[in-house]
Amino acid sequence: MATISASAPRIALPGVLGHQAVRKLLLLALAAAVLVPLANARWAGGDWPAALTVDVSEPLTRTSDWIIDNRDSHPLFLYFLGHISNGVVLSVRAVYLVLLAGGWAGVTAFAGLVAWRVAGPRLALGTAAAFLACGLLGMWVPTMQTLALMVVAVLASVVVGALLGLAAGLSGRMDRALRPVLDTMQVLPAFAYLLPVVLVFGIGVPAAVLATVVYAAPPMARLTALGLRGADKGVLEAVASMGATARQRLLTARIPLARKELLLGVNQTIMMALSMAVIASVIGAGGLGDRVYQALASVDVGAALAAGIPIVLLAVVLDRVTGAAGERLGQSADMPARRPYELVVAVAAVVALALAGRLTDRLDWPEAWTLTIADPVNRAVDWMTAHLYSGVPYVGGTADWAGRFTTWVLDPLRDGLQWLPWWSVLLVVAALAWLIGTWRTALTAVLAMAAIGVLGVWEPSLDTLSQVLAAVAVTLVLGFVTGVAAARSDRFERALRPVLDVFQTMPQFVYLIPVVALFGVGRAPAVAAAVVYALPAVVRITAQGLRQVDPAALESARSLGATSGQQLRQIQLPLARRSLLLAVNQGVVLVLAVVIIGGLVGGGALGYDAVFGLAQGDLATGLVAGAAIVCLGLMLDRVTQPTERRAKKGA
Amino acid sequence: MRLRTTTAVAAGAALLLLTGCGAADMTQQASPFANARGAKTVTLSVQSWVGAQSNVAVAQYLLEHKLGYRVDTVQVDEIPAWDALSQGRVDAIMEDWGHPDQEKQYVDDKKTIARGGDLGVTGHIGWYVPTYFAEQHPDVTDWKNLNTYASQFRTAESGGKGQLMDGSPSYITNDKALVENLKLDYQVVFAGSEAAQITQIKQFAKEQKPFLTYWYAPQWLFKKVPLTEVKLPPYKEGCDADPEKVACAYPHTPLQKFLNADFARSGGKAASLLKKFRWTTEDQNEVSLMIADQKLTPQQAAKKWVDSHESTWKAWLS
């Protein structure tokens, strides 16, 4: 990306930066001096003024009622949305039946075969082992349900994403129109996508699949466009000079040149789809996510874990296999020709296994082979809650920490934010966003924050914001320390890498399980889950940024006799400023996503409103909360966005 | 190129028209996971509380082992469950605590849901304090005195006010309006789920701390932690009509079963069993205690109950 060059002079000339910052602040202070007394005179008090809110619950409720009444009669539903929904149901069902007909042995062997062809023997073994583990945990059928849903959702996302990406890659105007939309969609928490689809399609698999597609298609579109636009100009020129038509150029040069980005897009789409397919259990997706959701509702940590492990295994396997496929493609030009008979033998083996399962009537995973981990896990959790939960001498138990964190950090932060006059919150937002970005980002941030007030959810939004801020602070402290350590010690980084890999591929939902066991219910566990989820990305970006610092600068510092602490403070950290800012940005976005899901474990505020809206069918409450979440996400992103966005989590 | 695009668009539109000709009613589309491999399947909605799990577990056991059905269960919250029931994504709700709006919309107007009769259990929602606290302070059981005890019910989550603990966001509750309208110095704190609420109650009880909670009967927890109800202004017919202005207690509700209308007509033996399913509060509590306290799986608990109550369920099968 071309952003590095843009920011370089800023670092080189801190005087100019300081000058600019002062000017921006002065301008802002001037605007505030004029506007604040006016606003304060009309609408005094800390809360968002009631006169400036718009009650949208009435029309929303009417819309929701209208949809329920007309869902089986209005042409829009009968001839358009009904067919979409029907198509989704039929295709998910088809995939599901094929998976069931294959039997556990057939499916496992087939997955192994695919992994072997695209990623090599080691990953093939790992894939087969992962599938067997799902069966062993007694989760075969839910795993197949999730897989069926995933297959359909990923195919649809890839097609939609590739088409959008193609349009953006070929037309500059389209690119300019799409980019801000896609950028914004990437920072929105998954939960915000659920409500609108539920409004139209009702609870069930179609809604779940569509929400997943909306969530997972943007990375594919972005990366496709990026790949097409980044094609080597020289090659294109050469192809054009040979007289190729536009279509030939696209098919023979641009798309093949972009295949690495395309595969990365597929990889990202799969990971996001999996994460969403699990969260979508809240709107009736069924499968593994539903098992986790049910288990969470009864705080049955053991059962939740039994369903959570297959999710993690699926995520890791899918990530590795598509990742390896991408790497192979990168160097595939001179791959040794594969021996065809190997493939024939392997396919025959898979078919034989599936048939054997069919003939011996062993399609279902045999019940005798399941391993119940729920009991031992629950016993361990009981022991933990009995011994760690409270009353540990000197350090106190986890529940005591959670209580103290709530009383000493979350409460003052929330009360402080809610005590601040509304216009001062807007001012702070404007100042932060302008200092770090442009007036455009500042304006977006302020408008987003104001929209929250207009929607009438100022207080719960500030509550959510306080949780986000607390979680981000903890994440950054832990993340920067770990990142610095990883950047300075090769051994530490090697040890850390697999841990980060696994943590980064886990769907957000999974993090809720252990925190409930440790911290009980409330805002503290939501914050804890958010910290754990966001930490890997922050650590990784920090370490990368520090390692990319020009070795020459470090060398010269060392030759001047700087200690390693001085090198870190005076050379590495300032030069890695952009990476650190990016880490902050990513941390904020990821934290928000999980704090919202924290509504399921007693996090309250906006997340609770969204869950409440879904649970009560009160879509007015849910949609307003969803819109506020979107605005909060936008505001937080703009406030922390240096200039241009980089690739997202997992990239 | 221009021509080709136009042709493609036209072809696409034609295709869409062709396939789109028939109407597709999405309210009639079942779950893609139902009826897999031709088995006769019944889908039951399980709500998150243990009593409802007991109903479903026993019904499921009888359907599977005595009638040879395959039973799917889905966890759906109460109000979305009505929508799912109307669409046929769920065949039956075994325990409903009274949703007059939905009843009017789906049973009376659209006729997509049919009544399935009494469950035989009467439910009651109320505010409860632990009996050990009520014995020390007998006057706490009248709502008029609640404000004097607010400081004793304070927690980290309730701020300066007393805590009134609610459970799952999906349960029927007027508590926020009640606190407001009765001018109580309390903050409603949602535990997020019933299980979380039970965990919290048990921990309070272990330390003999005072607490005030939204709770309901029949519930197996009364056997573990004795609770005493706080008297709210008496319930009168229609006093809870406007959810904003409620200032009275919750009613005593005979719990109802509801079936999808098509399923009720053509569901054969399964529909007939579910319609006749009727047991007592004691029966339900017996199964619930096995599930929640002895940590049996719902299926094991159902088997135990079925084995020892043949006379009760024989009547449902006839």
From TrEMBL, chain A:
GO CC terms, sorted: ATP-binding cassette (ABC) transporter complex
Molecular function GO labels: amine transmembrane transporter activity; carnitine transmembrane transporter activity
GO BP annotation list: choline transport; glycine betaine transport
Annotated coiled-coil segments of the chain: none
One Pfam family of this chain: BPD_transp_1
UniProt keyword Repressor present: no
Topology of this chain in the membrane: Multi-pass membrane protein
UniProt KW keywords: Cell membrane, Membrane, Transmembrane, Transmembrane helix, Transport
Annotated transmembrane regions: 94-116, 123-141, 147-170, 191-214, 262-283, 295-318, 339-359, 419-436, 441-458, 464-487, 580-607, 619-636
ABC transmembrane type-1 domain segment(s): 143-322, 461-640
Domain of life: Bacteria
Annotated InterPro entries: MetI-like, MetI-like_sf
Subcellular location: Cell membrane; Membrane
Homology family: Belongs to the binding-protein-dependent transport system permease family.
Protein name as annotated: ABC transporter permease subunit
Organism in which the protein naturally occurs: Streptomyces luteolifulvus
Source taxonomy: Bacteria, Bacillati, Actinomycetota, Actinomycetes, Kitasatosporales
TrEMBL record, chain B:
Signal peptide: 1-23
One Pfam family matching this protein: OpuAC
A GO CC term attached to the entry: ATP-binding cassette (ABC) transporter complex
PROSITE patterns: PROKAR_LIPOPROTEIN
CDD domains per the UniProt record, alphabetical: PBP2_BCP_2 (cd13643)
Key words of the record: Signal
Keyword Signal: yes
Molecular function GO labels: transmembrane transporter activity
Positions of the ABC-type glycine betaine transport system substrate-binding domain: 40-307
Name by which UniProt lists this protein: Glycine/betaine ABC transporter substrate-binding protein
Organism: Streptomyces luteolifulvus
